[in-house]
Amino acid sequence: MNETPPHALPNLSSGNTFLDAAPTLSVQDEEAQFIRQARVRIIMGVVMFSLFLLLLITRLAEVSLLRPSKSFTPMTTNQVKTRADIVDRNGELLATSLETYSLYADPRKVWDAVASTEAIISVLPDLDPAIVEERLASKKSFIWIKRNLTPKERQLVFSLGLPELGFQIEPKRVYPRGNLAAHVLGFTDIDLNGTAGAERAFDKRLSEKDAAPVKLSIDMRAQFALADELGMGMEKYQAMAASGVVLNIKTGEILAMASLPDFNPNRSGTALPNNRLNRASMQLYELGSTFKPITIALAHETGVVSAGEKLPVHKQLVIQKKPIKDDHPVHVPLGVYDILAKSSNRGVTLLALKAGGDAQQDLLKRLGLFDRVPMELKESAAPLVASEWQDITTATVSYGHGISVTPLALATALATLLNGGQYIAPTIEKHQIGQAITSHRAVSSATSQHVVDTMRYVVTDGTGRNAAVEGYALMGKTGTAEKLINGEYVKKRLVTSFVAAFPHRDPHYLVFIVYDEPKAYAGSWGYATAGWNAAKTAGAVVERIAPVLGIKKTVRVAALRDAKVGGGQ
Question: For 53-106, what is each residue's pLDDT tens digit?
Fold first, then answer.
């Protein structure tokens, strides 16, 4: 057996053999491959993170730069919403805006909603704790706590030192005259949007930048006198409500308009709905005999009664089985003047039937009594008119029943009959010198003069004597109507009214007074009719406002009978 030389055998300890080299190379390759994979993963992670970071930065840039911010930023004084003042015809301030502070909170900064609520309520006790706590516990970034704080309230809140609270400068609408002319002025909501009265009617103009004050037709001297006399009368006569209007019958300007009970527009949110109702322009009434001058005009306009003719008002009159009765029965025929002076229902019924229902409706339309009063205020009610105009309708409407209108609507119609016969829509905006007056002829000037004279006779010789004011030669007419309750007229529940106009020589102004359910009083002999309440108030109003309107007293009270044609009509 041959033996291999020692030097020919592989050296098992040298590490240079093939068997020893193969596993060594495999480990190195695995390590290199692992390193390469790790590097790839790291690079991919860095790329993914970079892409995510880039996307996040892009999104943040879009939200912060490209989209409008939804976060709340308190306004500066220059950014506060403005609203023009409202003044009366003489420039007296009626409504203005003041800067106030409103309290808000950022609920995200609230540490303890209960503790913060207790602190806030301690200085603002009128707030509801449950509502405040609910708002503070919300996840919103902005909530209102209270708007339009007083300076004292703001200082008390500021002293709390709560980091979540802040103040926003806001305007507040203020009415320095309080309740006076509240129904004419109306009010705004908390964001200064007009919601009633002149604030609503002129909302666009008042909201314009650098807008001039809106000048109303109201004369605050006349407004105060009207409201004051109505208030005293309402108390004396224990009436449920009262209203009144003073009109310039030449221009249609409303110089005063009052409704009682009233409210304070500075606290309109707490006012009862019944108090916010403008009864002069929104309440519908059957106004009774103050409608009779319209029937007198109808008869004259249609020529159905000759001069000196007397009608058989002393005889029984039945229309469609309904007897027509007079509150003051007479036993002799009456002429037109005495029909109005004695307020004869039978007399005006006979006149209306002679003229006819069609002619009556036509005149009522020309006087605007079939439509709402076309003035600036939205608070103007449409009338209630019979759907079928039968003879009985003609009869009852002739003395103010069977048709329901607002006091302002009837005042406007009567102003038309007294101003020469031109219908002029009433306005609450001051008439400017040289400004054209839109009107249409409703009756002839001769008919207008006839109504003027007959209404003067009512005050000198008829039911309107209690309205007489020495030196102003008033014209007038009483109206007493039973209220219609559940389809039946109730004798003890009355609506009384009186229309007065002056001066007789050249009528310029009209006063219309209405009491809702007045009562008899000491000295009225148990009567609660218009001659004992509405007429007295109208006379008192005229006596107070005539001097401020520039009407001078005449030397003596002119008696209509001296100038009346066919005396004793």
Answer: 777 777 666 544 444 444 445 554 445 678 999 999 999 999 999 988 999 999
Cβ contact 127:120 at 8 Å? yes
How distant, in Å, are the alpha carbons of 82, 98, 186, 207, 460 from that of 203?
12, 17, 11, 6, 46
Q: How far apart are CA 329 and CA 99, in angstroms?
A: 65
Active-site annotation, residues = 289
Q: Which of the four pLDDT bands, split at 50, 70 and 90, describes residue 559?
A: very low
Is residue 178 a contact partner of residue 193, using CB atoms and an 8 Å limit? no
Contact 295, 398 (CB under 8 A): yes
Q: Identity (one letter) of the amino acid at 149?
A: L
User: Coil, helix or strand for 509?
Assistant: strand
CATH number for position 426: 3.40.710.10
- Cβ 542 vs Cβ 470: under 8 Å: no
Total domains in the chain come to 2
Kindly state the tokens that stand for 172. 């507040």
Query: Are 231 and 165 members of one domain?
Result: no
Tokens of 203: 């909302």
**What's the predicted TM-score (pTM) here?**
0.80
**One domain for residues 519 and 378:** yes
- In what helix (H) or strand (E) does residue 296 lie, and over which residues does it extend? helix 292-302
Same-domain pairing of 167 and 298:
no
250: number of Cβ within 10 Å: 17
Q: Whose CA is closest to 375, among 245, 469, 473?
A: 245
Please report how the helices 391-398 and 357-366 are oriented relative to each other, as an axis angle in degrees rounded to 10: 50
At a CB cut-off of 8 Å and minimum separation 6, what does 554 contact? 471, 472, 473, 503, 505
Burial of 125 (0-12, 13-18, 19+ CB in 10 A): exposed
Please, are residues 435 and 222 in contact by the beta-carbon 8 Å criterion?
Answer: no
- Tell me if 353 sits within 8 A of 391, measured CB to CB: yes
Please list the residues that pair with 203 across neighbouring strands.
Answer: none
Together in a domain, 134 and 270: no
Domain region containing 123? 77-108+117-180
- Cβ atoms of 475 and 560 closer than 8 Å: no
Residue 34 lies in a domain: no
Q: Is residue 362 domain-resident?
A: yes
Instruction: Work out the angle at residue 223's Cα, subtended by the Cα atoms of residues 217 and 517, and round it to the nearest 5 degrees.
Output: 120
Yes or no: say if 407 and 285 are a contact pair by the CB < 8 Å rule.
yes
Give the pairing type, strands 165-174 and 93-105.
Answer: antiparallel
Q: How confident is the model at residue 569 (pLDDT cuts 50, 70, 90)?
A: very low
Residue 63 CB: number of other CB atoms within 10 A? 11
